[in-house]
């Protein structure tokens, strides 16, 4: 009986990466493992097929031979690239894959862990966020010990292989078909032990230090944006790569402007007479004051757009606008004469309410219709 394509067995594409292959195997192995299929011989054979496909596709040499020659390339009877051989231990292969959950696998050397990523919260004013700036930040972190260069061992000595896990960093507990990987209690998963620790870092290979970094803030950043500094996080263990530092931006609220994307919004007070007769008023922008022409009979709440006076997009470079909402101010602290003048103005309008106050007339017409509808 001809064998099925290994990629088809695991349900992955031919170009699938190792992580995708492992994920597919874990899902299928959990489903078809003999402990779950209650002695079903057909499903047990399927499990063996899954294991065989996994072993071939996760071995670079065997996978290359399979991709080039098919099953013939990994047939042990043909001598091309080795083979599955049918004698694999269920527990070994099952434990090798699921050992990844605990940080390692069968027959693999323990790998030093990459340093942790760090986050720094940076608070900016709106002006700083819009224009950009260079800032210096101080970040407490772990750096590689200069005295032992990260090894953790005193000068003239070196770490030795752990006698418990033989350098794997994991120990295996077996029970029936299951093989569970656990972190080695002797070396804490490092695979090595330090008999003569460095007197500077006390065997840790890393020391605490506050670093001063210069960060270039690009123009247009906003709250929630992150700036990534590669390799500026914590140093890795035993020479492993350092993590990254993420500078998290938060923009403080502004007294005048509110920001929405690349646009700015502000409210501008407008005098009663200017709103009625029209005129000019000065409005603030982040670049200084500009004149805004107000047409006669402007109502409160009207929005004026000043193009290009907003924020430059940090991604596209497009300029936003400044949206000015005018708020008509009612005169206060009036003198007796001013009050008389306003009364004269009111009287001069007479009964022509709809002509001079269209919104008021429209509102009361709507109220009248509302009550008429209720009574009908």
From TrEMBL:
Xref: Pfam families: DnaJ, DnaJ_C, DnaJ_CXXCXGXG
Domain CR-type: 132-210
Zinc finger (CR-type): 132-210
Annotated GO CC locations: cytoplasm
UniProtKB keywords: Chaperone, Cytoplasm, DNA replication, Metal-binding, Repeat, Stress response, Zinc, Zinc-finger
Residues bound to Zn(2+) 2: 162, 165, 184, 187
UniProt: Zn(2+) 1 binding residues: 145, 148, 198, 201
Residue ranges of CXXCXGXG motif repeats: 145-152, 162-169, 184-191, 198-205
Name of the protein in question: Chaperone protein DnaJ
The organism of origin for this protein: Alteromonas halophila
